[in-house]
């Protein structure tokens, strides 16, 4: 689902913060670790099945409204306006971190407890929410680059997000209200209106969402597949992290120039060793020329003419996922 290939520098990180528990306010940190598919390390909003892993806010809202630091409870403060950033956009922060923008954060009444009347004046500058596509360290001063519309879009309207989640629920499964709220990125307090809202969507939708007390024998769906991006998308995003060759240099002329025969043989041995392990996981991360590459076991390269009786162990290459990714899906 690649809809745009633009790449533009748009600003820098001004400050970082994490909130370690719901009982304490966010605290400023010098360095934040973004974890692929999870969020920021030690932050209460880290969740593999959430659209709200990270909140990014532009400093203009603070300057124009005279707000005290961290009033908006952001994780990343930026020196540019976030209100025009669209869902599905991928931002590269620093050298390694890729963030998938999901939707604009709503101006809820909780803001008023931190600054009287704030929810009525903040408008579209509440900030934008994101998921971590590729992890790494983030520091104040890191450059931020807009890589374009690369990944699926989510609506800013919570009702439409709920419907999008229900559309993805298999016909053999149901999703409980609390899990529906979690995956759609809405407060759990919205669960009380789900019966009415899903009934308005139609009978098919109404039957897909149930309360925790439901006696239906259908399996409970967690929604993990919503965040399993296509391999082609992973590969395309991964290439955007790699350094580009110098201008006026033919890339083909560089091929093989910086790797000795010994290094090439060692690399081949690594690949053969990993692919020959009978008990290996479905996915395996390998360090190739300074880049993390994900091998997926049991895939065939497009155009491979090898007879089906003698398949080659060619893997599909994609963006690296954390070692424990498989455990999230169980």
TrEMBL record:
UniProt-listed Pfam families: MOSC (PF03473)
UniProt-listed InterPro entries: MoCF_Sase_C (IPR005302), MOSC_domain (IPR052716)
Single GO molecular function: molybdenum ion binding
Domain MOSC: 27-147
Transmembrane domains' residue ranges: none
Protein name: MOSC domain-containing protein
């Amino acid at each position: 689902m690649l809809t745009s290939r633009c790449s533009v520098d748009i600003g820098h990180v001004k400050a970082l913060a994490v909130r370690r528990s719901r009982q304490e306010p966010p605290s400023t940190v010098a360095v934040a670790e973004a974890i692929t598919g999870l969020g920021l390390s030690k932050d209460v909003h880290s969740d593999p099945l959430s659209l709200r892993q990270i909140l990014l806010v532009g400093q203009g809202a603070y300057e124009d409204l005279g707000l005290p630091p961290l009033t908006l409870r952001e994780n990343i403060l930026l020196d540019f306006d976030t209100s025009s950033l669209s869902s599905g956009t991928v931002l590269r922060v620093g050298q390694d971190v890729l963030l998938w923008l999901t939707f604009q954060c709503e101006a809820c009444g909780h803001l008023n407890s931190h600054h009287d009347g704030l929810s009525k004046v903040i408008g579209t500058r509440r900030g934008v929410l994101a998921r971590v596509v590729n992890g790494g360290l983030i520091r104040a001063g890191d450059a931020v680059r807009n890589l374009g519309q690369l990944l699926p879009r989510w609506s800013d309207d919570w009702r439409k997000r709920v419907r999008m989640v229900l559309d993805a629920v298999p016909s053999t499964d149901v999703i409980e209200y609390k899990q529906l709220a979690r995956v759609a990125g809405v407060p759990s307090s919205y669960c009380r209106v789900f019966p009415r809202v899903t009934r308005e969507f139609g009978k098919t939708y109404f039957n897909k969402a149930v309360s925790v007390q439901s006696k239906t024998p259908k399996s409970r769906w967690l929604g993990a597949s919503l965040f399993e991006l296509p391999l082609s998308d992973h590969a395309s995003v991964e290439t955007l992290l790699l350094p580009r060759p110098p201008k006026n240099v033919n890339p083909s002329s560089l091929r093989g120039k910086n790797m000795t025969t010994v290094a090439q043989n060692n690399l081949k041995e690594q690949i053969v060793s990993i692919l020959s392990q009978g008990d290996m996981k479905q996915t395996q991360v390998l360090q190739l020329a300074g880049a993390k590459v994900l091998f997926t076991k049991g895939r065939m390269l497009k155009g491979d003419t090898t007879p089906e009786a003698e398949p080659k162990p060619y893997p599909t290459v994609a963006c690296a996922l954390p070692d424990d990714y498989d455990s999230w899906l169980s």
